[in-house]
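step 4 of 6: structure.
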Amino acid sequence: MTDVSTTADTAAPTRRAFGGIRSRYLRHPGFMTGLIVLVLISIVAVGAPVFAPYSPLETDMLKTLAPPSADHLLGTDQFGRDVLSRLIWGARISLQVAAMVVLISLTFGTLIGAVAGYAGGWVERVIMVGNDILLAFPGFLLALALVAVRGSSLDSVILAVSIAYTPRVAAVMRSVVLTIKPRPYIEASQAIGMTASRVLFVHVIPNALPPVIVVATVSAATAILAEAGLSYLGLGVQPPAATWGNVISDGQSYIISNPWISISAGGCIAIVVIALNLLGDGLRDTLDPQMRRYAGSRML
Amino acid sequence: MTSTIKGHHASFMVKATLAVFATVTAVLTAMPVSFAANDVLRVRIGSDVGVLDPARIFGIENQTVAGHIYNGLVKYDQATNKIMPDLAREWTVSPDGTEYTFKLRDGVTWHKGHGELTADDVKFSLERVLDPETKSRYAGQLAGVTAVEAVDKLTVKVKLDKPNAGLLNKLTAFNQGWIVSRKAVTEIGDKNYQMQPIGTGPFMFEKWTPGNQVTVTANPDYFEGAPKIAGVAFKLIKDETAAAIALENGEIDIFFALQQPVIIDRLKNAKGVTVQDRPANHTINLVLNTSKKPLDNVKVRQAIAYGVNREGLIKGYFKGTKAMGHSVLTSSFPEYTEDLPQYPHDPEKAKALLAESGVGAFELELVSVGLSPYDQLIIPVANDLNKIGIDTKITILERGAYLQARTKGDVMTVITGVVGPPDPDSPLVTLYATKSFPPGLNTARYDKADELLARAAGELDPAKRTGIYRQLLKQTMTDVPVLPLYADRLFIAHSDAVSGFVQNSLFTMQSYSVSLNR
Amino acid sequence: MVKYLAQRLLLMGITVTGMVTVVFFLLRLIPGDPAEYMLGDYATEESLAALRAELGLDLPIHEQYVRFMGRAFSGDLGTSVVTGQPALAEVLASLPWSAALALAGIVIAIVIGVPLGVISAVRQGSWTDLGVMLVALAGISFPVFWVGLVAILVFAHELPLFPALGATSSENPLTRLHHLALPALVLGISVAAYIARLTRSAMLEVLGQDYVRVARAMGVRENRVVYRLALRNALIPVLSVIGVTFAWSLGSAILVEAVFSRPGLGSMILKAIFARDYQLVQAGVMVLSLAVVLINTSLDIVYGIVDPRVRTA
């Protein structure tokens, strides 16, 4: 494992950093497990209309709170809806939240962090003070307040978690850029007259990406946990939409009589988050072993 | 790295750990200390208190706590809902029905040394509610009161502009009917008084720990005799499952506001636990805004009434713990009747009515406040309406936004119930009178009930009055501006250590009659 | 050193002011009118206007901001619009509950997390390592409120070892600890999993350093290498993360408090957000951010004392 560190430590241009270690991914058991699980769940999510035995929204007041049976593998909820079908459809929303949060927080976090780190001086100071202010909030609290401002909806959840997470990406990006900046090829590019933005996009950002990708997998996991937490408090995606968080909070009142409702939804969340963490660990070990500080997902 | 710096680390870590432990211990021991006597009744409440001033009070938890602290001129008997003497020993009504004279009990004292109750306190309390400066939410309840006079120390006169058969209901020990002390309110000040209430009741306010509990202690000088328990701790436990476990484990004695059918079922079978229930004074309703297209069309409203599977909701979701709502008056009212237009679940008839109405496809927004079970039962209701071809959209609003939507009056529907005393005016005026919009209570914007309501208020003969109310029920169930989804039933569970508990139908609870034997 | 201290304190002031500013303006964007909420169903236009004037809600937003900041510096955080009580008093009443939960959680996390991380690192590649890391992976991956639900189901219901309620009014310290135990364990374990993973990484890094190799080569006993040399240095990054962890555990505490019906700053802020009680949310976030920033700053300062390299960074 330790020999990889030399690859990342030296001023490695992008292609080498990615290309030379491709086979290592395949040999990393955690990475492969995580990847396979995520691919399978993505297939289930995309094919939800095919895989789900029932509609996730159709209520049947004659079959409420049925225990697991051949007809309903995970039983039904208080409105007679099939729990398994709700979980299958819920995978879509959870993965959608994760993907959107990664996209938004990565785009803005990377840009903000890169600009701050590369520009230096007062630009860096102003950006980082603002960033630190947002970072000082317990992220979940910030997300909560943002959802309260916008009203509960899928968009609000995605936006709130993205805003709460972007400063974290920005902080990582900046510190990585700071270590890249003094490297010889950057100085050389400046010396041959490349513009600052060109240097930023051609050299700085691509070379700083490996650790940021690790952070991204963590942020995806965090986003899924945050969505569940917000839904649990009644601030998440609005019912009757099937999300894993909604299924847990629907089932909470029935945790003693019908424990499988909440437990199976919690299990789904855990499986995806574990897979994302395994993926993140694998990427960290192979791409950038210096990223030890990023010890996995957490509730923001 | 030199070894001295490392030595530093070690001692720092040790110190830090010690410091953390010391802080934890300090924090634990410094926490607000309250009595933990064995004869304190522990009651679960589902929402935090925050306003105990009768002029501003709202919410069943606040009303429950206030009910322990205050008295009214008269009160409802907990079991029978009959109007009984409370602070007033007796009362007379002038022949024209516009003047009520109350004789107060002698020697009633205010809590915590605030002196003796006099007629002036009653005058102060009622005038305080009526005074626009107080911004009381109940000023409208006392509308028609022209003067309150303290004739002598123990005699008070309430004068009306015209006869009002329902006046005593407005003066019972509930909300605006609770009597406060002029001296206490003036000394403590309006703002602080909200959470420093002074009453004449069987219990005295002790302490409120936000987010945790509110405690009251027995009033040894209570005019009907000191309570048999040392006090009551109202503990905030939001989740019903946690509350049920707490009751079974002996962490609480009374489970107030029990709602979840599975938990009711579970507690009914639990050892050492008794579940009591009785019909409530309110129905839970789907209000249809008659000022919004296409809900202005009575056929569309009737189609919705036939389309919602209320029987399924009661049987499937509530597991039979609620009853059918035939009108907005429940069986606990003397005016109750089932001789009204009925709307059994009939999707075909609903579709036919929709076709007859000539209204094309439309989207119906179903709005509920984010409180269980209202935000829950809206889901099968939406599903039922989808099946008769109405495109539904569910909107769950938190309380503030929900009230604002109602105040604006442009929401298509809301789910609401009028919790309160067994006074027919309470649901009927609130839901159907034009004077209830603004402020947004008559969200149906219904405008055809005013005349009958006025006639009922002015009618002093009880039988004729009941007749007028029933006529109004018939009319409103034909027009269906408000569809009663179910008649609520109140459930309370208590441990076998509790005896003498009497459940009321107001959706509050009173511990005065309770004794504890652990 | 003095310069470093002054810098940290200045930054702390800026951060707290910034956080309060963010919250102040954020809350003003929330739809809904607190006056309407307070007066509820029976509101009239006149009573609403009177209340808005009383709360200063009729002023332009920048004036409200100046007024709020001016008062905040003199310790007046306004009055709760729902209860009419001073907001600061209500916040301070819920602070001990949160402090007890967060501190107990962190203590549990350190006590469990650090040793597990060390064992895992020392036995890198063994079954013990794999087992610990799998458990830690699960610990960071399960939603904390779900763990709380299951904990209530198992430890309060099936085996009634702990109370279902995370709070008590008893003055007996043992009863209090008994009520605190389950919520603190649930919070602590999720943080412990994180700390264990972090400690393991940090230990592995240190164990690979030259001076450790040299010490080993020189025949220093393995125990001494691991616990005297490696652990001490590995704890520095762990220590620096504890501050961050503290802020995050205050966020998770909202969920833990909700599951265990426990009062605290988090649940108070949540309640206030639902009630549109701006003043209370502001006061709560102000005190919370002050606590987070104070802890981070003092850890930074300690870190600066312990490791002089940090000061120049």
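step 5 of 6: annotate
 - The domain at 94-250 of chain C is CATH 1.10.3720.10 (MetI-like fold).
 - Residues 225 and 257 of chain C are 42 Å apart (CA to CA).
step 6 of 6: archive
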